[in-house]
Amino acid sequence: MERKILILPESLASKIAAGEVVQRPASVVKELLENSIDADAKKITVVIKDGGKTFIQVKDDGSGMNEDDAVTSFQRHATSKISTYDDLENIRTLGFRGEALASIAAVSQVELITCTQETDVATKIRIEGVEIKEITKEAFERGTSITVKNLFFNTPGRRNFLKNNTTEFKHVFDVVVRAALSHPEVGVNFISGEETVFNLKPADISDRIRDIFGEKLSDSLIDVKSQSPFIHIKGFVSKPDFSRKTRVEQFFFLNNRYIVSRNLNYAVYQAFEYLLEKGSYPFFIIYIEIDPHKVDVNVHPSKMEVKFEDERSIYHAINSAVRDALFQENRSGVEQHPQITGDEKQRPIISHDFQLTPNEQRYFQLHSRYIIFPVDEGVMIIDQHAAHERILYERAIINFENSNTKSQHLLFPHTVELTTGEISIVESLIPELDALGFQIKIFGKNTVIVEGVPPDIKPGQEATILQEIVDLYKENENNLKLEPRDNLAKSFACKAAIKFGDPINQSEISALVEQLFSTKMPYVCPHGRPVVVKLSLSELGKRFGRI
Ligand code: ADP
Ligand code: MG
């Protein structure tokens, strides 16, 4: 019988394998940069032409190779970086798959010149579509230079998929920037055509960021730092007011390897959640170090995706490191406002049946919407609804953990009719509603009896508040996908807070201002909108033409 199965010739097999590693000029640059870094280079020069389509050269001053290694390096699965399975579990280098040079050579015309410390003459190899064309010797300083010409010259299908030079340049640029950020101690010179795109001196992380992104961005960064026995995190996030409308400038480095992870991105967004408006994203650069045994980088040939042994812990570590950083930043913005403690914090803003602390200083309320508050160096304008929302939100979160809330017992309980779906929401939140100060009994399939409400609820709102909270909870569940407790805290805070347009009296104003500045994040409401706007005397001076 005639055989149908053939073993593919090496020239075809290598093109197929190359497809996984080399998608565009940027993939070549990435692999070559990784090799230079793995070879302990202190200075790397990248030159490209036509977005890298016709010419890519990466030159380093690293360890170099002798002639035997240089020839072998172009074979598939040829690597000096691992030799056993245990090594694969303990990767400390950027490369380890031994397929980059083979893949690049399969689809382009390559010239390698390399020289080690030990040899005084360099090996030069010319290779085209896996075939070695020429090996010669010549003078060259220690290190390696690899020139890749006419990428995909023998795979027209691939070549046709390439985008215009500007787009391909942008991809190469991103790759070089990531490498430069991953190893700031390495000098990186990047030239495109006749133009030097950047020439970065060896630096520490902060200076490298400044050199790449400029003064304005680096001045707006907040330090992120956290250490535990199993994970070290350091890096920077932008201050909330520096956020961008796109996600481009966000970097994670795992053991100095640039990685992409939607989940870890989310850990950072979560930490910003009350600080950013929907649709804006923070700039961040976060370096994570963990034991390589606890992470698998061999998920995809590009090595940008990783699998963590314990992703939840990594998520939480990043989330809380960023939260802490933002919290510190927020605190440092709060000036010398009266800080209040204990029971004062729990006191309702709207006075029902007890006196609030009198305050000697006058403030006043503007159009039943804003509170104008003189401060040393100018004036603060506070959005009364947003301020109260912030207070109630934080109080709710504290009460969920450690309830000591009083409840206003209602003389005449209210009956609330809810849909079956709404009843199940209420049922699932009974402990939290209780912690907020609700006294609730579920009665039959569609009825809830409210016997008590939180002390913050305004007179007249007792009958409707539960329905209002449930409605907003459902809306948040659909639109924002909030976690249940957070959702309840936000829904409660929004509905129980004094409204825009509600008149409040002098002692209520005082209580609102005092309690606002005792919260963790007085400057933003739980939705991320500003609570306070400050006008400095110098700004006022400018407006009046005095400065
Ligand atoms: P990998 O990096 O996964 O080992 P590559 O195909 O990228 O596989 O490279 C093969 C081998 O060639 C490397 O393991 C290394 O020993 C050698 N090599 C490649 N580039 C360089 C370089 N710039 N300097 C020194 N050695 C290099
Ligand atoms: Mg490599």
Description:
The chain has 19 helices and 22 strands. It has 547 residues and is of the alpha+beta class. The strands form five sheets. An eight-stranded mixed β-sheet has the order 5-4-3-6-2-1-7-8. A five-stranded mixed β-sheet has the order 9-10-13-11-12. α1 packs across α5 (100-106) and α13 (384-401) crosses α17 (484-496). The N and C termini lie far apart (97 Å). The structure holds adenosine-5'-diphosphate (ADP) and magnesium ion.
Report a brief summary of the structure:
The chain is of the alpha+beta class. Adenosine-5'-diphosphate is lined by residues 31, 35-36, 39, 60, 62-65, 73, 78-81, 95-102, 144.
Helix content: 25-40%
Rg result = 31 Å
The counted number of beta strands is: 22
The DSSP helix count reads 19
SSE layout and pairings?
Elements: H1 10-21, H2 25-38, E1 43-49, E2 55-60, H3 67-72, H4 85-88, H5 100-106, E3 109-115, E4 122-128, E5 131-138, E6 143-149, H6 156-161, H7 165-182, E7 187-192, E8 195-200, H8 205-213, H9 215-219, E9 221-227, E10 232-238, E11 250-254, E12 257-259, H10 262-271, E13 284-289, E14 295-296, E15 307-308, H11 311-332, H12 342-346, E16 364-366, E17 370-375, E18 378-383, H13 384-401, E19 408-417, H14 420-428, H15 430-436, E20 439-443, E21 447-453, H16 465-479, H17 484-496, H18 506-516, E22 532-536, H19 537-543
Helix pairs in contact: 1-5, 2-7, 10-11, 13-15, 13-17, 13-18, 16-17
Adenosine-5'-diphosphate (ADP) binds at residues 31, 35-36, 39, 60, 62-65, 73, 78-81, 95-102, 144.
